Amino acid sequence: MSSPYFMNSNSVITRNKVQKTDCTHATSLRFGLTKRRRKIDPVSSVAVKVEEEEAGISVQGPFSAPISNGDCPEHLFQDAPPPKSETDIAPLSSHSRRRRQLKVEYDKDESVKPVKTELWEPPDWKKQLGFIREMRSGRDAPVDNMGAEKCYDTEAPTHVRRYQVLVSLMLSSQTKDQVTAAAMQKLRAHGCTVENILATDDETLGKLIYPVGFWRTKVKYLKLTSAMLQKDFGGDIPDSVEGLVRLPGVGPKMAHLAMDIAWDKVSGIGVDTHVHRISNRLGWLRKPTKNPEETRKALEEWLPRELWSEINWLLVGFGQQICQPVNPLCSMCLNQHSCPSAFKNSPTKRPKAEFPGSPSPTSSFKTKTEHKQESTVTDESTKTEPLFTPVSPNTQKRKAKRKLKH
């Protein structure tokens, strides 16, 4: 045996006796490792002790006890690898004993499906919408004949038609469709183009659009908008909601309606006072809204997109004829049994007429019946009226005294 670990013979304590052996494998290996460890990288006594224990465990692994000289067969050591040199043994450090970080991964359970959150929608809205379509089947409301779709010149160039649609929408704010249609008719006769509006002075333009609501403010908006269209868009109107809202006097409702009518693109729901009022009355909103812009956002959350273009003219005409802001005709509405606001918005007193001496069209039947009832009451009172009036005793005494004097 040429290995240095088996050259020296040392005493080894066995189960039976102490004997000399040249095959002190465990002791020599432990001594050699400890000696080289001290030469290469001295460490603390605790580390040396740990290394000695590890070496002892590795050596005595396959043997239950050290083997004596006579019991060591040579074939057990013929296949053993040669001992490593000092340069091959790497120094043991505290970093080598650290545990490696394990990455924990979980298998996805395909049986568990993600929970789907259902969108909110009002109850019976499809049934109510069907009834509104039935009530609007005649298309005889003012919006059907005098709305923004009917106010532009069909024979004008394309960009001029789009400009006239935008002008009619700007004039329709806080104004009835009849007044807007009359103002647009005068503007078209004057020449409703960007160039003509800019060439017209404010006083003449005010007379043309009078008596639309806030006509003085709208004259300024028309001039500013026309100048911006001529400068930035070549006389045409923008083809996006963002561009339209930048124009003076143009709000979200006008922008969405202009996109639908002028550009034939559905970008959102055009919500005016009628759509805002009726949506709250029918309970089509998760919670009541305070202005048309809040109503638009709430409707777009659940209403299918294919209905966004139709819902405006449906509810506007429905609000002009039946679901009026004052004294709604709930008895004539087909949704009176499903509407949560049915027979609750009618005022207790009859509204005043718009012009003195002219009754409102909705209450003409009531006024006729009231006049008949009053006439019958006066006739009965005249029939039952007594022939003489009672006289107080004081007046009787005065009359008696006058007779005595004469």
Automatic annotation (TrEMBL):
- Organism of this sequence: Xyrichtys novacula
Which ranges are annotated Low complexity under compositional bias?
Answer: 355-366
Q: Does the keyword Membrane apply?
A: no
The terms under GO molecular function for this entry are: 4 iron, 4 sulfur cluster binding; class I DNA-(apurinic or apyrimidinic site) endonuclease activity; DNA binding; metal ion binding; oxidized pyrimidine nucleobase lesion DNA N-glycosylase activity
Lineage of the organism:
Eukaryota, Metazoa, Chordata, Craniata, Vertebrata
Q: Which part of the chain is the HhH-GPD domain?
A: 171-321
The entry assigns this protein to a family as follows: Belongs to the Nth/MutY family.
Q: So what does this thing catalyse? A: 2'-deoxyribonucleotide-(2'-deoxyribose 5'-phosphate)-2'-deoxyribonucleotide-DNA = a 3'-end 2'-deoxyribonucleotide-(2,3-dehydro-2,3-deoxyribose 5'-phosphate)-DNA + a 5'-end 5'-phospho-2'-deoxyribonucleoside-DNA + H(+)
Required cofactor(s) = [4Fe-4S] cluster
**Quick one: where is this thing mainly located?**
nucleus
Give residue spans, biased composition: Basic residues.
Answer: 396-406
List GO terms (cellular component aspect): mitochondrion; nucleus
PANTHER family recorded for this chain?
ENDONUCLEASE III-LIKE PROTEIN 1 (PTHR43286)
Q: Name one GO biological process term.
A: base-excision repair, AP site formation
**Would you tell me the protein name for this molecule?**
Endonuclease III-like protein 1
Q: Per its database record, what is this protein's job?
A: Bifunctional DNA N-glycosylase with associated apurinic/apyrimidinic (AP) lyase function that catalyzes the first step in base excision repair (BER), the primary repair pathway for the repair of oxidative DNA damage. The DNA N-glycosylase activity releases the damaged DNA base from DNA by cleaving the N-glycosidic bond, leaving an AP site. The AP lyase activity cleaves the phosphodiester bond 3' to the AP site by a beta-elimination. Primarily recognizes and repairs oxidative base damage of pyrimidines.
